[in-house]
Amino acid sequence: MSRIVVSGYYGFQNLGDEAVLAATVQELRRLRPDAAIAVLSASPEETSRVHGVRGVPRMAPGPLCAALRQADLLLCGGGSLFQDATSWRSPWYYLGVLSLGRRLARRTAVHAQGIESPSRALVRAGIAHVLDRVDLVTVRDRSSLAVLAALGVRRPRIALSADPAWLLTPDWSAAAAAERERWGGGPRFGLALRPWGSGLAVRAAAAAARTVAARLGVRWVLLPMHRPGDLAVADAVAAEIGAAAAVVRAPLGPREMLAVIGTLDLVVGMRLHALLFAAAQGVPVVSVAYDQKVTAFVRDLGEPAPLPAEALAADDVVRAVEAAAADRAGRRARLLTAVAPLRERAALGPALAAELLG
Predict the structure, then answer these.
(1) Nearest-angstrom CA–CA distance, 9 and 17
(2) Where are the strands (E) in the chain, listed by range?
(3) Which residue, among 331, 293, 303, 284, has the nearest Cα to 85 in the 3D structure?
(4) To 10 degrees, what angle do helices 254-261 and 272-279 make?
(5) Are 213 and 244 in contact (CB under 8 A)?
(6) Secondary structure element (H or E) that encloses residue 99, with its range
(7) HEC sequence for 282-314
(8) Global confidence as pTM
(9) CB-based burial of residue 322 (10 Å sphere; 0-12 exposed, 13-18 middle, 19+ buried)?
(10) Phi, psi of 329 (to 5 degrees)
């Protein structure tokens, strides 16, 4: 029996990261049904219950080291773990776990990473030093390949994969069906916002949504992807929009959220995985980039350039939404064509990781 330990931003109620974990576990079990999978988590009991793995407290040195000593493979990812935009401390945690894994586990791999060039020279040096010494690195977009090359990471095998969440299928649970039933009929547009900066982007999106609701007669569905922060933003924006807004209140899992997003007519999003869930099902997207990962995602899809969060204007959002709505059939066809190779790429990361187990 092989033992795999997965490290990432897990157990924090972030649907995007939980989608990555769900898809990664799904693929590893398909490829290696005998494998025992442990996940480093901020909520180990919840992670165990939701994903059917062994949850390990991510900040408890004893259990963490014990799991790594038993591991045939430490799989670090996916997501954007090695960046210092969120916090200067964050990349050091993941680099520390990876360095420890190199000493204690049999093999180490970086999985489906979005690599962004950190602003701090010391962080860049740390990434280059640690990642250059693992057995395998797979990245989720071409921009990440360029960053790795610029950092000087060349020794391990490096492959272009894609976000594992492309491999998920919808789950029409009773909770998902009840949530969709609340919206009623008619056209429904999704809006996935997050707390960010001064709040300018959120205010501009709310103003645009009011205008679009009046012009097109649509209802907006607010999609909290990371609770509780996104839910607070969703409630505030729904209040601004008024009667033409509904908030997804049920704490849906990633497959359930994938299901309900697939029934929408269009999605405007800052959250990467809200955009991914929509695009995966041919739902037209209007992206708002607060981070390079959103730009890289849109570029991979061949979609129009994202609107910049730092200078977002309501009029620009309205124009982008109206253009996407007017060409729904064309955009749907183009998205479904673009998604097929991304799904193939997404399957490559777990396959290469499984090969390390011998």
Answers:
(1) 6
(2) 3-7, 36-41, 54-57, 73-79, 107-113, 136-139, 157-160, 188-192, 219-222, 245-247, 266-269, 285-289, 307-308
(3) 293
(4) 60
(5) yes
(6) helix 90-104
(7) CCCEEEEECCHHHHHHHHHHCCCCCEEHHHCCH
(8) 0.96
(9) middle
(10) -65, -45
Question: Which single residue is written with the structure tokens 């969703």?
Answer: 234
Q: Is 34 exposed, middle or buried (0-12, 13-18, 19+ CB in 10 A)?
A: exposed
40 φ, ψ to 5°?
-75, 125
Beta-bridge mates of residue 77: 111
120 pLDDT higher than 90: no
Q: Which domains does the chain have, with CATH numbers?
A: 3-161 (3.40.50.2000), 174-341 (3.40.50.2000)
List the structure tokens of 4. 């795999």
How far is 261 from 256, CA to CA, in rounded Å? Answer: 9
Structure tokens at 183: 């919206």
Name the token pair of 124.
Answer: 């860049």
Judge residue 136's burial from the number of C-beta atoms within 10 Å of its C-beta, 0-12 exposed, 13-18 middle, 19 or more buried.
buried
Q: For 155-213, write each residue's pLDDT tens digit.
A: 999 999 999 999 999 999 999 999 999 988 889 999 999 999 999 999 999 999 999 99
Question: Buried b vs exposed e over 102-134: b needs ≥16 C-beta within 10 Å?
Answer: bebbbbbbbbbbbbbbbeeeebbebbbebbeeb
